[in-house]
Design goal:
Elements lengths: L2 H14 L9 E7 L10 H13 L5 E6 L12 E4 L3 H8 L1 E6 L14 E4 L19 H13 L2 E4 L2 H10 L5 E4 L11 H14 L7 E5 L19 H11 L5 E5 L16 E2 L6 H7 L2 E4 L4 H8 L3 E4 L3 H8 L12 E3 L2 H9 L3 H14 L8 H14 L3
Parallel strand pairs: 1-2, 1-4, 2-3, 4-5, 5-6, 6-7, 8-9, 8-11, 9-10, 11-12, 12-13
């Protein structure tokens, strides 16, 4: 259902769901979810949740919405509920704090006394969103307008993100220059090293292996994804890396976007890690990131490791699909428009130059990342729930 009918339906649902207002708001209840598919315990809400459980154990009744809640019952310190169920509606509409990493459902009423936080799911300022995204239809634009009425607080990773992404939704509410909670990890070298060893061991990569994570984004304007699947040159890329890093065996991991990966088949000899729930842990384990238009380059830049942008469909993506806030030539990755450019860039990789480019990019976009995002959000939640300065 799209267009005016969908808007009318959601408006009616919003009114009907106000019936849940007869139930009192639970002062210490926090509802969390991640991504549109609610498939994983991941991203910024996960890291806020872990911080709260560690620093204020038992203080909050934390409820997570999942598509398959039974898979996540093993996580201590949370309760699980099936997303879009009646129980989910009850838990959500009686929560004092609600945390998303995306735009919330547009049919939900805003309950007086609730604090709704949108952490978003990407840093930097890359692909166009909101009213700046020319691919959005009338329903998408109507949904975007609901943010102004529903969300109380938006987290930002950088000044550029605030100007481009948040203002792209014409959001007028409060913005916290916090950084992204999921990136706090990258400011703790011991934790990064521990996770790196654990994840590499899990996927059978030796310590001296050169782990290359290939993580393309999804393409919105593709009706048949398989027809426009980008064929990545794994074999020739591996040969180029062997020349650049003699004695280290390249190991390729492929992680498709969560909205895409079930529609693709991984190439033989390439390890499909798409179902691994935590992208930050994969980034911590990787030596090199190869993507196209994914904002994972922002997160990886914090590690100062080399990133490559393999973009054979750049002209089409920039003009027909999303387009960019920041010109792609200014991104921290090394731009490669075809196989030959990628192979040459891999052979001539200068790791120090890559670190310098990443650092300069973070500064140019006005990064807010400093490893304390989760604590800032936790302090705000504590003041909201328990009062105090």
């Amino acid at each position: 259902m799209r267009g005016k009918a969908a808007i009318a339906y959601r408006t009616a649902m919003r009114g009907l769901l106000r019936l849940f207002f007869i139930f009192p708001v639970r002062r210490n209840r926090i509802m969390m979810s991640s991504n549109n598919d609610a498939a994983y315990y991941t991203c910024n809400p996960k890291y806020i949740c872990e911080y709260l459980k560690h620093h204020e154990p038992g203080a909050y009744d934390i409820v997570w919405a999942f598509a398959e809640p039974k898979k996540w019952k093993r996580i201590r310190g949370i309760r699980t509920v099936k997303v879009h169920s009646v129980r989910w509606l009850y838990e959500l509409l009686t929560s004092r704090v609600v945390i998303y990493n995306r735009n919330p459902e547009s049919y939900l009423p805003k309950r007086p006394g609730q604090l709704v936080i949108n952490t978003w799911h990407a840093g930097g300022a890359y692909k166009k969103v909101g009213f700046e995204n020319a691919t959005l239809d009338s329903l998408d634009l109507w949904r975007a307008r609901q943010i102004n009425d529903y969300v109380d607080l938006f987290l930002t990773s950088s000044d550029a993100f605030t100007k481009s992404n948040i203002e792209g939704y014409r959001y007028k509410g409060q913005v916290m220059r916090s950084g992204m909670p999921r990136n706090d990890l990258f400011f703790r070298p011991a934790a990064v090293d521990r996770i790196r060893k654990r994840v590499r061991s899990r996927f059978g990569a030796r310590e001296d292996s050169l782990v290359v994570l290939y993580a393309p984004t999804y393409r919105r304007n593709v009706t048949d994804p398989l027809a426009l699947q980008i064929e990545f040159p794994f074999r020739s890329a591996a040969e180029a890396l062997k020349e650049r890093f003699p004695g280290r065996e390249p190991v390729f991991w492929e992680r498709r976007h969560h909205q895409d990966f079930n529609r693709y088949d991984a190439e033989a000899g390439v390890l499909d890690v798409s179902s691994y729930p935590d992208m930050q842990e994969l980034l911590a384990a990787a030596d090199i990131l190869i993507t196209d238009y994914s904002s994972s380059i922002w997160d990886f830049a914090l590690l100062g490791r080399p990133c490559f942008l393999y973009v054979p469909d750049l002209a089409e993506y920039e003009t027909v699909d999303r387009g960019f806030f920041t010109p792609i030539g200014e991104w921290p990755g090394i731009l490669c428009r075809d196989d030959a450019e990628l192979e040459d860039a891999l052979r001539s990789l200068d790791e120090e130059q890559a670190r310098r480019k990443a650092k300069e990019h973070l500064a140019a976009l006005g990064s807010c990342e400093d490893g304390h995002a989760s604590s800032r959000v936790a302090e705000l939640i504590h003041r909201t729930v328990f009062g105090g300065p």
